């Protein structure tokens, strides 16, 4: 069974960074890209970017290029997103989702990030 | 970026009623490989999104066949033939033909 288990909720101070994990199981981690999606409170879905764990290659939406850094550890089948220079605009739930030929078939449970001083 | 315009923004339906949601793209979603990467997702309250339909009309495994997708190029439709209580939530179309991936603004389905 494919599972994406994300880390727990985070609270970050303005200007700091947080790093969220997404541990994959039930499939070969390097066979699929991992997408990351942001959902601000009460809002819709925004694609942040994806990482190909096999090669470490990434692609980002323009607005997230200076905000998010995607990495992957193939030894632990875990994908990460680091969010830097946090502001109130970064308060949101962040999802990882396995990319199956353009379709986000499997999703993590989401991680709530709260930016607060 | 591709803009996906979903209508209506909200939908109220009775159990058993059939409903449709429209998704219009600002540009053709037909890829050079011949596929059209237009998907439909449902996000139930408090849950992660789930894939319902991929590549316009392909029903995801385990999804009831009361859900169906149709369309081409720039105009797409999700139909629910006989709404059930568990169908409440927000429906999103999303495209993966053009980078960056983009989502529609969502359609909230309420049960009367």
Number of strands of chain A: 11
Secondary-structure element pattern of chain A, one letter each: EEEEEEEEEEE
| Most extensive interface | A-B, 24 and 25 residues
Total number of β-strand segments of chain B? 11
Average pLDDT for all residues of chain A: 97
How big a fraction of the residues of chain A is strand?
over 45%
Please tell me what the overall shape of chain A is: globular
Mean pLDDT of chain B: 97
Flag low-confidence runs of chain B: none
Cα distance, first to last residue of chain A?
40 Å
What is the distance, rounded to the nearest whole angstrom, between the alpha carbons of the first and last residues of chain B? 36 Å
Helix content of chain A: under 10%
Summarize the structure in words.
The complex is a heterodimer of chains A (117) and B (112). Helices cover 0% and strands 55% of the residues of chain A. With 117 residues, chain A is mainly beta. In chain A, the strands form 2 sheets. In chain A, strands 2, 4, 5, 6, 9, 10 and 11 form a 7-stranded mixed sheet that branches. Chain A has a 4-stranded antiparallel sheet with strand order 1-3-8-7, with no helix packed on it. The mean pLDDT of chain A is 97. Chain B contains no helices and 11 strands. The chains are: A mainly beta (117), B mainly beta (112). Chain A binds chain B through residues 35, 37, 44-47, 49, 59-62, 95, 97, 99-105, 107-110, and chain B through 35, 37, 39, 41, 43, 48-51, 54-55, 60, 90, 92, 94, 96-97, 99-106.
Structure in a nutshell:
The complex is a heterodimer of chains A (117) and B (112). Chain A has 117 residues and is mainly β.
Structural key phrases:
heterodimer, A: 117 residues, mainly beta, 7-stranded mixed beta sheet, 4-stranded antiparallel beta sheet, 11 strands, 55% strand, globular, B: 112 residues, 0% helix
């Amino acid at each position: 069974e494919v599972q994406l288990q994300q880390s727990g909720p985070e609270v970050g101070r303005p200007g700091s960074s947080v790093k969220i994990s997404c541990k994959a199981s039930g499939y070969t981690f390097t066979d699929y890209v991992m997408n990351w999606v942001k959902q601000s409170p009460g809002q819709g879905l925004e694609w942040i970017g994806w990482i190909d764990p096999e090669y470490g290659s990434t692609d980002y939406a323009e607005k997230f290029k200076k905000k998010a850094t995607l990495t992957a550890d193939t030894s632990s089948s875990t994908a990460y997103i680091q969010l830097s220079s946090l502001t109130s605009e970064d308060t949101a739930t962040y999802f990882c989702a396995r990319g199956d030929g353009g379709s986000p078939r499997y999703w993590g449970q989401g991680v709530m990030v709260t930016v607060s001083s | 970026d591709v803009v996906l315009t979903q209508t209506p923004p909200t939908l109220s339906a009775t159990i058993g009623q059939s409903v449709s949601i429209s998704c219009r793209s600002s540009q053709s979603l037909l890829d050079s490989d011949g596929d059209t990467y237009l998907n439909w997702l449902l996000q139930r309250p408090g849950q992660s999104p789930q894939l319902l339909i991929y590549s316009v009309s392909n029903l995801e495994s385990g999804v009831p066949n009361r859900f169906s997708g149709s369309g081409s190029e720039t105009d797409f439709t999700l139909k629910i033939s006989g709404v059930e209580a568990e169908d409440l939530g927000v429906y999103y179309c999303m495209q993966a033909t053009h980078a960056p991936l983009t989502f529609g603004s969502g359609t909230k389905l309420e049960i009367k």
